[in-house]
Write a structure and sequence with these properties.
It is a single chain. The two termini are 16 Å apart. With 547 residues, this protein is mainly β. The chain has a domain of 373 residues. It is built from seven helices and 41 strands. β15 and β16 form a beta hairpin. The structure holds retinal (RET) and fe (ii) ion. The site of fe (ii) ion has 5 residues, from β25.
Length: 547
């Protein structure tokens, strides 16, 4: 089965109207905006890893029961430089590139030296972040790219380092109740220290300080956590968040800074500077948002690799947090394009399945508790926190569900008690074939699947005025491995997990990573959604078979 992982996808610049079957709820008006890699070769050169691909943004605009689709490559500096040179000239996660092969030995040496502190890529292919009224494409370097969600045009390049000292940052920020962005990055060997920095970008800027300024200019450091090691900070892809706490896992999947500093000259990739240390522990840092300080207790657990935090909440003096955990870092290995070729099913077997695990940590010092005692008295979980000497606590998680990735929740429950996880079901292969609704309370699940269909991350949109946590719909872009079946946007009823509608579009749709839904109601009066007239010009897509 070939879905062409390494094949470049065509952009769909003009909106096309999808062929809708079923009935889209009338209240569902807005735009699903998503990001992911779409171009894997430039000229004769090719990227090694799927996470290297050039960012391709796509959007599904839902209006009065119709769906309009468009896609556009992010015109990052990386994209422009590559296209101009007709080859890959900017390094990505799994591909090291050499811009000037013809340079003489002296200028070559100079160019090597200038890469000691590398200028990373602005190929923001992972997610979309809402920042005040603006939207940004994001990756894990120090760069983000402002975009126009309506036209998918690429706007300013923003360097986080102008506002906060971080060399890398996550593409999974959190949003608090006021819409402020909280994100985390690593400041590497700055003034002799390496630390993890949690920073806040305000949703709004006071009128008197505004003067057309972006909220990013008002970014503040919320708190920082010193890295256990100066030269090998942990890699992380997301973090946990509740009203009062921030959860950071300092996992034994680490960046080797010395290796990074010499990677360019040695001709190896950034990916090769990341290593899983199975002999190490995973340290659990809990920051109290009121004091902005990490709790002094040394919480730890077994070695693991976590990409996605699912949710976290406080219950009876404990903090519960749920993550998708692996026993090793094989996920990154599998996404090498060489493993994702025609017979990828043979070559791409994970050596550990992604498991939904629940951790529980006690929030109050248990100085008098006996060594060996379990500090978790909750009846809702079997997760344990065992008291050890020297203020250490060993955390043993509860296994909730085996085989899921790309988790999403009803974000109104972020940081709060919640019951449902929506995710893609992933067993031993990294490619999802089902969409899953997992009920943490009853430990039961509902699934959607269809032959030849590969679903993207399922996104939950609540019904306006919803009371139940699962009162809403699920949106997932589905690509099919059957050439006779065009890709489609699937709309499921989140309660029953039954199909409400699907919108088929005969375009070259890519498998994406993450994104968000912008309800029409979020657009303020100044930034109107495009007029109906604009959509009327969209060409029809009759869902004809792809050739
Ligand atoms: C370029 C670059 C990086 C990029 C990492 C990327 C692009 C990671 C993507 C991860 C995904 C998509 C995970 C999904 O679960 C690092 C290592 C941060 C630092 C060095 C330079
Ligand atoms: Fe992610």
């Amino acid at each position: 089965m070939d879905v062409g992982f390494g094949r470049n996808k065509k952009e769909q610049l003009e909106p096309v109207r999808a062929r809708v079957t079923g009935k889209i709820p009338t209240w569902l008006q807005g735009m699903l905006l998503r990001n992911g890699p779409g171009m894997h070769t430039v000229g004769e050169t090719r990227y090694n890893h799927w996470f290297d691909g050039l960012a391709l943004l796509h959007s599904f605009t839902i209006r009065d029961g119709e769906v309009y689709y468009r896609s556009k490559y992010l015109r990052s500096d990386t994209y422009n430089a590559n296209v101009e040179a007709n080859r890959i000239v900017v390094s990505e996660f799994g591909t090291m590139a050499y811009p000037d092969p013809c340079k003489n030995i002296f200028s070559k040496a100079f160019s090597y030296l200038s890469h000691t502190i590398p200028d990373f890529t602005d190929n923001c292919l992972i997610n979309i972040m809402k920042c005040g009224e603006d939207f940004y494409a994001t990756t894990e370097t120090n760069y983000i790219r402002k975009i126009n969600p309506q036209t998918l045009e690429t706007l300013e390049k923003v360097d986080y380092r102008k506002y906060v000292a971080v060399n890398v940052a996550t593409s999974h920020p959190h949003y608090d109740a006021a819409g402020n962005v909280l994100n985390m990055g690593t400041s590497i060997v700055d003034k002799g220290k390496t630390k993890y920095v949690i920073f806040k970008i305000p949703a709004t800027v006071p009128e008197d300080r505004k003067k057309g300024k972006s909220p990013l200019k008002h970014t503040e450091v919320f708190c920082s956590i010193p890295s256990r090691s100066l030269l090998s900070p942990s890699y992380y892809h997301s973090f946990g968040f509740t009203e009062n706490y921030i959860i950071f896992l300092e996992q034994p999947f680490k960046l080797d800074i010395l290796k990074m500093a010499t990677a360019y000259i040695r001709g190896v990739t950034w990916a090769s500077c990341l290593a899983f240390h199975r002999e190490d522990k995973t340290y659990i840092h809990i920051v109290d948002q009121r004091t902005r300080k990490p709790m002094p207790t040394k919480f730890y657990t077994d070695p693991m690799v976590v990409f996605h935090h699912v949710n976290a909440y406080e219950e009876d003096g404990c903090l519960l947090f749920d993550v998708v955990a692996y026993e090793d870092s094989s996920l990154y290995q599998l996404f090498y394009l060489a493993n994702l070729n025609q017979d990828f099913e043979e070559h791409s077997r994970l050596t550990s399945v992604p498991v939904l695990r629940r951790f529980a940590v006690p929030l109050h010092a248990a100085q008098d508790a006996e060594v060996g005692s379990n500090l978790i008295k909750l009846t809702s979980t079997t997760a344990r926190a065992l008291k050890e000497k020297d203020n250490q606590v060993y955390c043993q998680p509860e296994l909730l569900y085996e085989g899921l990735e790309l988790p999403r929740i009803n974000y109104a429950h972020n940081g709060k008690r919640y019951r449902y996880v929506f995710a893609a079901e992933v067993q031993w292969s990294p490619i999802p074939t089902k969409i899953l609704k997992y009920d943490i309370l009853t430990k039961s699940s509902l699934k959607w699947e269809e032959e030849h269909c590969w679903p993207a991350e399922p996104l939950f949109v609540p019904t306006p005025g919803a009371e139940d946590e699962d009162d809403g719909i699920i949106l997932s872009a589905i690509v099919s491995t059957d050439p006779q079946k065009p890709p489609f946007l699937l709309i499921l009823d989140a309660k029953s997990f039954t199909e409400l509608a699907r919108a088929s579009i005969d375009v070259d749709m890519h498998l994406d990573l993450h994104g968000l839904f912008i309800p029409d109601a979020d657009w303020d009066a100044r930034k109107q959604t495009p007029s109906q007239e604009a959509w009327d010009r969209a060409s029809d897509c009759h869902g004809a078979p792809q050739t």
